[in-house]
Amino acid sequence: MWTENEYVLITSAVGGEKNIVSISSCFTRVRIQVVDLHRIHSDVLKTLPLVKGILVRGEEVQLVVGLEATLLAESFNKYFKEAQKVPYRTCI
What mean pLDDT comes out for the span 48-61? Predict the structure, then answer.
């Protein structure tokens, strides 16, 4: 599980709260849809615990984390609810 500091780091590394459109999960990935891909700092995201890889597809950053993806996406979304409403969805 990520800590609050790691959620803050993820938020910053994907361009801040206003750059996040949605947070979702799909089997082994936490998917973060963003407004502007140019604000992504993949080098920072790669340093996070549990992150095994980073993929950028369309307007989405995918954090490859393994089978914990749904739990991590749900907890990230829960953390985010305090700052702003971001829809959570899963493709499972």
Answer: 93
